[in-house]
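dumping this here so i dont lose it
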């Protein structure tokens, strides 16, 4: 869930067009990011999981969604530590929270029209 207070405070200096573009980029890149994580987990490619989860964590931080960011961090740590336990469970939770984030971003984008 986006912390809208922090989001609005951090983005108040930006033009609305820039904020919409940042949101659009996240939404457009999301399917490939999730697909890559799923592939990394299915192939037990922990090095790539580490890198892809780290990247997702970083871009998600821009929207102050602590739940999604934390789940991405957990996958990042698992990849870094070469620990393949519970990856599917964490990933499934990440898909749920990140899908909610996408919906929130679509709604938030309307506020920047």
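and the seq i came up w/
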């Amino acid at each position: 869930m986006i912390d809208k207070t922090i989001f609005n405070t951090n983005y108040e200096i930006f033009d609305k067009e820039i904020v919409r573009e940042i949101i659009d980029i996240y939404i457009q890149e999301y399917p490939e990011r999730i697909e890559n994580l799923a592939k990394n987990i299915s192939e037990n490619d922990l090095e790539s999981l580490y890198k892809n989860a780290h990247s997702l964590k970083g871009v998600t931080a821009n929207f102050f969604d602590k739940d999604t960011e934390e789940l991405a961090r957990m996958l990042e740590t698992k990849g870094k530590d070469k620990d393949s336990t519970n990856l599917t469970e964490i990933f499934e939770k990440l898909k749920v929270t990140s899908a909610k984030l996408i919906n929130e971003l679509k709604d938030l984008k309307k506020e920047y029209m």
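The chain has one domain: 4-111.
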